[in-house]
Write a structure and sequence with these properties.
By secondary structure, this protein is an alpha/beta fold. Helix content is 43%, strand content 20%. The protein has eight helices and seven strands, in the order αααβαβαβαβαβαββ. Strands 3-2-1-4-5-7-6 form a seven-stranded mixed β-sheet, sandwiched between helices. The chain starts with a helix and ends with a strand. The model has no long low-confidence stretch (mean pLDDT 96).
Length: 221
């Protein structure tokens, strides 16, 4: 069995070419963020398609994304909610938010996306009192995962889908003695999903273009 990074990345590439058609808007979003020097941490095409399908399967029309980057995942989700749907996405850095807005305009879906600039800890409280979100995608600083999960429950409803990205951390999540703040933030979020009665959750590991990682999926009960 060949589980080298090269082999798993090749399998990801094969699946992407087989299942996902070339897309000018998504390619533009990647090219724009890479040329701007943004980190190469966006979801893969396969993960973007999974987000898209989960929204369509669950019938979600209102989506909250925590962590916009260049809006690659945002485009996948905004397409899935349809013309009557809405995505609220939170980006901490103004210059990155400007790139995201440009990419959303290019994709022709800027009218259904609200890019809010600021840290999640500051923006999320301002959303209290708005209509419940049907799906929440958490893909920001891992140190704040428990805060984001708390607001996912508070801003959602019974049946809201919650997705937490990057929970694998190259297998380091098993280390209770880790000094890595990202690992510890991820562990805290997973422990919250297991213990907090507001959630019913599962998680899975992944290998591929993004290395050894994983995703947690929950519903608000």
């Amino acid at each position: 069995m060949d589980l080298t990074p090269e082999a798993t990345a090749a399998a990801d590439t094969y699946l992407t070419e087989l299942l996902i058609a070339p897309d000018a808007a998504l390619a533009h979003a990647l090219a724009t963020q890479h040329s701007a020097g943004l980190p190469d941490i966006e979801v893969t095409a396969l993960s973007g398609k999974l987000l898209n399908l989960l929204i369509r399967m669950s019938g979600a029309h209102r989506v909250l994304e925590i962590g916009t980057l260049g809006a690659y995942s945002t485009i996948w989700m905004a397409r899935a909610v349809g013309e009557g749907g809405h995505v609220t996405t939170i980006e901490a850095e103004p210059h990155i938010a400007a790139i995201a807005r440009q990419n959303l305009e290019y994709a022709g879906i800027a009218d259904r996306v609200d890019v809010k600039i600021g840290r999640g800890a500051d923006i999320l409280p301002t959303l209290i009192g708005t209509a419940a979100y049907d799906l929440v995608f958490i893909d920001a600083d891992k140190e704040s995962n428990t805060l984001y999960l708390d607001y996912a429950a508070r801003l959602g409803r019974s049946g809201t889908v919650v997705i937490v990205d990057n929970i694998g951390r190259e297998g380091e999540i098993v280390r209770s003695d880790s000094t890595d703040s990202k690992v510890n933030g991820t562990r805290a979020g997973l422990e919250m999903l297991g213990a907090d009665p507001r959630f019913d959750a599962t998680a899975y590991q992944t290998v591929g273009l993004k290395g050894w990682d994983g995703t947690a999926i929950a519903i608000v009960v």
